[in-house]
Specification:
The complex is a heterodimer of chains A (about 290) and B (about 625). By secondary structure, chain A is an alpha/beta fold. Chain A is about 30% helix and about 15% strand. Chain A contains 10 helices and 8 strands. In chain A, helix 1 packs across helix 7 and helix 6 packs antiparallel against helix 9. The longest helix of chain A has 16 residues. In chain A, about 55% of the residues are buried. With about 625 residues, chain B is α/β, with parallel strands linked by helices. Helix content of chain B is about 35%, strand content about 20%. In chain B, strands 9-8-10-11-13-12-21 form a 7-stranded mixed β-sheet, sandwiched between helices. In chain B, strand 4, helix 2 and strand 5 form a beta-alpha-beta unit. Chain B starts with 9 loop residues before the first strand and ends in a 5-residue tail after the last strand. The chains are: A alpha/beta (about 290), B alpha/beta (about 625).
């Protein structure tokens, strides 16, 4: 795998050999290069998890947030820094567990952020417990009899709250993933790219081979990404039997849904038109407000 | 029955009735009438956490002389239901008036408990509203007219205020209200009791601020150039969210009502990363949710301001009442150790000052700054001399907002490259914002190296260097924070230490005691963290008799003094029933320390018992 040097820190990645995070790292660096962004043009936010350890491997304007809390600071940053692009990376345990409330509310806002979920359907950092996206009945150290909950359907949830760009990526295909990222980064509004990214150490079910046998590309099958209801139906592919065959559970990747032209949250605020740090150069005159109370 | 000694020429008015009848709004318009004609006012709104029903009251103190707090006595009671009379009978002064609507109830012997001194004013509020073609909520306006009529105070100010209030509504709405007030006024004039508490009309327009503590903090924050305000509604801080929502966007402030307090605090950190002066505010319960992110602000050296406006806890507690029981919580909140500043403004003017100074401290120290207040200060309005907006300054500390970080050599590594967390003598590192050329960095919730990366942060030497660098800022903070306030003579018979809103009733009581020739002084730490142990110790060491006053059960301030000064007080006064410390009980406590037993009279005033001074 050719490795892009731009945006990389001097710290060598500590992910397990073969981890899907490597491909995601590479695909995103290529996409940012293709966008023509320089380091001073964008900021990146991470939560806590193996994806978040990636914050050490980037040399960018970065913010390594608390577990589950990458979207709120990214939102605030975007609203107060209209001159900056914003990329959020979150994990499935991080973003769809603790961060689920923030995820739903950020989707509702259609704030101009690209949100990339490292979805390995497992907790890697804390050694292999089930995550919110683990398959029903998957066994793990915290669920020895199998996960009794249905997995979170992030695509469906995002569509339910009218996300304007919803895609699923596959870490096993860097070129395809990088192209999805470019589309997401170019989109005006909230863009979700939920990426299947096998955990080679702890997830013995959803492996590279398992995915490769099931993945298909939406654009190759003439998918129309303008139909929200059909996209929602497609998102039901999240739910399948643990023992399903490649024929009975096919995994669609690509852009599920895209809506152009809907106003962003920041379009509705006059305050976001200027970087907010410029508001604190000289004191505001509050005399009239004070006397008008 | 009443005792005039502590009180100057003043009138105390209470409006009471069920929630949802517009009591607070009506009371505040009455306050505006008196404030704009040069009177000093202090109001106290007490209400349960209900939208309809229950018992709400608005108490307004109007005085010719400067005042510092509410008092417990009432001279005019507007009773919009029967229970209002029963609940407040004991605080009615000799000759006090009770304005009520005979359509609601007729006070019977048990309601007034044989008080034949009272002047009953049976104002037909509902009938008058009907006559002028108004809606039931306008009963308030009739009662305001009746209050002024009873006091023989000119009606014109109220009519002007009504017309201003309804300026944007169809003309007949204002005129209906004017007619309602006029009819109420005329009715009370006809009843004409010999009312002993009168205020002479003042002609001059007064230049005053009539603001509550929430608005005062908000004004300070606006003046300081706030760029981001995030909050989730929670009493008693919600009014600050409303203030910011009303004035923010047009003034360039992003104001976000977030999904929860966790989001609010995390958003504020993101705003600070981008260089916005960022603030959130909440009550103790909301702050409990914010705590993890508050600590993140410490390790990431984020310049943020957090308002913690407290009420009685634990958990949901008593949402609409007041308490100072989160002092320890705020100074200790979050796992791990990091420097923080906690400012506890004692009144409305100090709330304004804390509102802007907190941002300078946060930027200078690059660490979270808390404004600790409570319901008593946040929700009640006082007339103040207009806040000194010309004194506001902006100091953003070691901030690089634009340009190239290479022109700031102090922030560059020997091998080149920007170091956000470079170890320095003072503990302060140059903070270059995103967008500045070369300002790559990692704001990190993990311990980190000078760049911000987490991996090296696990090294023992790096951990020590970063932890030492951060903690050094606490010593720097001591040189920057507002010092304690000292009131009264250098030496006194009784020396009081208190913090926050308790300053107000203590100052009021001090003025009563001074009038009797009793010397009292007071030390009020405005900055409660870092704790000003030297000033407090010096004050206590030089005192004859010491008293500590606070609104909590365990004596949290008293404990801090024991812990950091190794000193104990001669006496303490603690209150934890949700009601603010009142000047009457401070007065009585001080007199008791001097050997004069004092008790509250039935009028809520204080009277010397046998053997008094």
């Amino acid at each position: 795998m050719a490795v892009t040097k731009e945006f990389s820190s001097p710290i060598a990645p500590t992910w397990c050999p073969g981890c899907g995070n490597f491909q995601m790292f590479e695909a995103l660096k290529r996409a940012i290069l293709e966008m023509g962004w320089k380091t001073e043009d964008f900021a990146m936010f991470w939560g806590i998890g193996q994806h978040g350890n990636g914050s050490d491997f980037w040399q960018v304007q970065g913010f390594h947030a608390l577990h589950g809390r990458s979207l709120p600071p990214a939102t605030a940053f975007r609203l107060t820094r209209p001159d900056q692009h914003v990329i959020v990376e979150m994990g499935d345990g991080d973003g769809y567990g603790l961060g689920m409330g923030h995820f739903i509310h950020t989707v509702r806002r259609n704030v101009d952020i690209t949100c990339i979920a490292h979805n390995n359907q497992i907790y890697g950092l804390t050694t292999g417990q089930a995550s919110p996206t683990s398959d029903h009945l998957m066994k793990s150290p915290s669920t020895p009899k199998g996960v009794l909950e249905e997995p979170v359907n992030p695509i469906g949830l995002a569509l339910a709250e009218r996300a304007t760009f919803v895609a699923r990526g596959w870490a096993g295909d860097i070129a395809h993933l990088s192209n999805l990222y470019v589309q997401a980064l170019s989109h005006k509004g909230f863009a979700l790219v939920d990426v299947f990214q096998p955990c080679v150490t702890f997830n013995k079910v959803n492996t590279f081979r398992w995915f490769n046998e099931r993945i298909y590309k939406l654009e190759e099958e003439g998918w129309d990404p303008s139909d929200r209801v059909k996209a929602f139906e497609l998102s039901m592919s999240t739910f399948h039997d643990l023992e399903c065959t490649p024929e009975t559970c096919r995994i669609p990747v690509g852009v599920y849904y895209k809506e152009e032209g809907r106003p962003t949250y920041e379009d509705g605020l006059s305050a976001t038109q200027t970087p907010a740090f410029k508001q604190a150069q000289t004191p505001r005159d509050v005399s009239a407000i004070m006397r008008g109370l | 029955m009443s005792q005039s000694a502590p009180y100057g020429p003043e009138v105390r008015i209470r409006i009471g009735g069920p929630a949802g009848t517009g009591i607070k709004a009506a009371g505040q318009s009455l306050a505006r009438v008196f404030a704009s004609s040069g009177y000093h006012t202090f109001d106290l709104t007490e209400y349960p956490s209900l939208i309809k029903g229950g018992h709400n009251t608005y108490h307004l103190r109007v005085s010719e002389a400067p005042i510092y707090s509410h008092v417990m006595a009432t001279d005019v009671l507007v009773a919009l239901d029967r229970q209002t009379v029963r609940l407040h009978l004991a605080e009615l002064t000799e000759g006090a008036a009770v304005i009520y609507d005979p359509a609601d109830f007729e006070p019977d012997a048990s309601d007034i408990d044989g008080r034949d001194d009272l002047c009953l004013v049976p104002a037909p509020l509902t009938a008058i509203v009907k006559d002028v073609g108004g809606i039931p909520i306008m009963r308030n306006v009739v009662s305001l007219g009746a209050v002024l009529g009873h006091m023989d105070y000119p009606l014109q100010g109220l009519l002007d205020s009504i017309r201003a209030q309804f300026a944007n509504k169809p003309a007949e709405v204002a005129e209906q209200n004017v007619a309602a007030a006029t009819a109420g006024y005329a009715f009370a004039q006809d009843v004409h009791c010999d009312f002993p508490y009168k205020l002479a009309p003042r002609a001059a327009e007064a230049d005053v601020v009539l603001a509550d503590g929430n608005e005062s903090v908000g004004l300070g924050a606006l003046a300081a150039g706030i760029g981001l305000y995030c909050a989730y509604p929670m009493t008693p801080s919600s009014a600050l969210l409303h203030f910011m929502a009303k004035y923010g966007d047009d003034n360039g402030v992003v104001v976000k009502h977030t999904e929860d307090e966790i989001a609010a605090m995390n958003m504020v950190l993101g705003g600070a990363f981008g260089g916005a002066r960022s603030m959130c505010a909440t009550a103790g319960g909301g702050f409990a949710l914010m705590v993890e992110a508050f600590g993140f602000g410490g390790v990431s050296e984020s310049a943020v301001v957090v308002g913690v406006f407290t009420r009685p806890g634990p958990a949901t507690g008593m949402p609409t009442w007041t308490e100072q029981s989160d002092l320890r919580f705020v100074i200790h909140a979050a796992q791990g150790e990091f420097p923080r500043v906690v400012l506890a403004p004692g009144d409305h003017t100090e709330s304004f000052e804390a509102g802007w100074k907190a941002f300078n401290l946060a930027d200078q120290l690059q660490t979270p700054v808390v404004i600790l207040s409570d319901s008593y200060l946040c929700e009640n309005r006082q007339t103040s001399v207009p806040y000194d907006v010309d004194a506001v300054t902006i100091d953003r500390g070691a901030l690089v907002a634009e340009g190239d970080v290479a022109s700031h050599p102090e922030a560059i590594a020997e091998a080149g490259g920007y170091l956000r967390y470079k170890v320095t003598e003072s503990g302060i590192s140059t903070r270059a914002l995103p967008g500045v050329t070369g300002a790559t960095q990692l704001v990190n919730s993990y311990e980190h190296d000078e760049y911000g990366w987490g991996q090296e942060g696990e090294r023992a030497d790096v951990r020590i260097a970063q932890n030492d660098k951060r903690m050094k800022k606490l010593e720097l903070a001591r040189t920057l924070v507002p010092p304690p306030n000292h009131f009264g003579p250098t030496s006194a018979e009784v020396s009081i230490v208190c913090f926050g809103s308790t300053k107000m009733p203590v100052r009021e009581a001090m003025s009563w005691l001074e009038a009797e020739g009793i010397t009292v002084n007071m030390l009020q730490p405005v900055t409660v963290w870092p704790f000003p142990h030297e000033e407090v110790a010096a004050f206590i060491d030089s005192a004859a008799r010491t008293l500590v006053i606070e609104s909590n059960y365990t004596g949290q301030l008293e404990g801090l003094v024991a812990e950091y000064c190794g000193l104990h007080f001669d006496a303490n006064l603690r209150r934890y029933d949700g009601r603010p410390i009142s000047p009457e009980i401070v007065y009585a406590k001080v007199k008791a320390m001097l050997g004069a037993q004092v008790e509250l009279t039935t009028a809520g005033a204080v009277a010397a018992k046998e053997g008094g001074l």
